[in-house]
Amino acid sequence: MARPRIRAGISLPLGALALALGTSPATAQSARLAQQSRWFVDPDGRVVLLHGGNVSLPVFDASAPPSRAREILWNGETAQRMREQGFNAVRLVVFFSAVMPQPGQIDHAYLERIARAVDEYAKAGIYTLIDFHQDEYSALVGVRGMPAWAVFSDGQTRLPGVDFPMGYFKDPAVQRAFDNFWRNYPVPGTGKGVQDLYVDGLVAVAQRFRDKSAVLGIDVMNEPATGSRCASPDPATADCPELERELLAPFYTKASRAISRAAPNMMIFVEPFMLQGALGIPIRTPLPAPEGRKGLSFHNYGPVRATRDRVNDYALSQATRRRAAIINTEWGFNNDPVAISGQAGDFDARLIPWLAWTRGAFEALVDPKLPDSGNGNRVAILRAYARPYPTATAGTPGTLRFDGASGVMTYRYTTMLPSARRAGAKLFTEIRVPAIQYPNGYSVAIAGGRLLSAPNAPLIRIHNASAARSVSVTVKRVGTLPPLPAVVGEPDRAQAALAALPPIPDVPLSRNSLFGHIVVTPGGRDLIEAEVPGLLAGMSHVHGWEKMSLAGIRSFASSVLTDAKLARLDAALARLKVVPGPVKVASSPRFSIDSLTSDLLADPRARAILDREAPGLSHSPQQALFPQTRLRNLKPAMPGLLTDAVLERIQQALAAIP
Question: What is the pTM of this model?
């Protein structure tokens, strides 16, 4: 039966899509993957490449709206839309603060929510990497991750006005919390250290998912930080290999052994220190997991091509040397489609699997039915991420290239598997063809193999010729795509998000009000800043902050928003004069010193202002901070360059940009 042609921008019914992919919605399950040298391999020994993105834990109960940043209310079609655009894996962000809210007490309801997400993605044939995530350790001292009981900061408290990610480098509370994690500081009343209990949390998740073949593995800790030592965003002083041996090696060894005992088939992924993925310094991450289950998860936020190349090459060298499967689990955070395509091409050239961290929610990027914020031109950005690639190779990958402008993909592989045996006659190679890249179909030319799939199928299947030592495949787009739009910096996200809020109801404000409604109410912003210093600044850089409530935020910041604090806020909020009706936000300039520094540098007009008022900024050794740091917040790292007077001049000049 001829398979339907998939057109960009058109969604097939789920049943038709499943038939086109050769599966049914209920049975499209994923075979367990393992590690063979630097590759992921399936049970037949074929090399599997993974493309996808980072996702939040969905909300499945429509009566309980999302409360965390980037959370979405689950749409049963979202995973299928991911598959339609060629994606086959996600990195699911979970938090130790939710896994073990009290010392030694596992929240099994939270694990079941994770299990529901894993099962939903598995139905679409999508693997899930479970990521134990933290940003600046904990909401008590930084952003999120660890529960309050696991914070031992030697009496240090959060520094006001120091926003993510500057807390890693400038806030003693964040640094001391990490120092004491590495020391395995004793948790009162448990007889265990904080690191021991963290490993217990990893074990609980490993035990729950040990029989789930669709779980790619566990990412032990997102972006571990060095603490008070080697805490500099300057590549000249941030290379501290002794800390990899002293801090990471014993922790990763302990975690790997415990996970292996609990789940003998679970792959174990470990990460370099946080700065190594942005500065281009050597990566020597210890990889103590057993052969066959060893994974290096690395991030690449290098601000320039040369830095990104070093990050990729150092990570690939370490994975190859230590015989570990390599995967990039964070990159992107950018709304420049040309830059995204270029970095994806860099991964293709090295045959590195990847899971992007998109500027807005990845789920909303792939599913047009979901409300989107932060992804810029959704179609242009999706086209940059969604690329044809070999998801399974009956042999060993050799070279992969894709030109997004022409729609030409070339792929060459040998017919010897990584296990050094020839691919058997029953094995075939699979290449995913994203709908958005080939709206009018494609042509295929093969040397050394035979095409098995129907014309314009979303999944190309190739059988190796019996005598072939290598196979070459060329896929060409039929027709053309419109050019990608010009790239400019985004308008201030906070202002745009507030303007898009629903009308303010004619009821008193409370802890259950939308955070955005509180902020736009006269006196609301000042009240939040006075009662909870740093909360607004810390939340406003993440997707969806304006639609959260203080009560919802409390679920992962209970040490900051205590019962007593919320009671005081309720009383004070109730006294504010509400202006019901549509949200009115004072007009703001397109750019300001509260814009992300990378956005300013991406716009020629804003960059000219920065070059004039802060010469040398664009080439600073600390430019690794630019993609996630607002210009104003760079002041603690560059006090001599970004003085109050300089920032004021920049603000005035940026406000004049039409």
Answer: 0.79
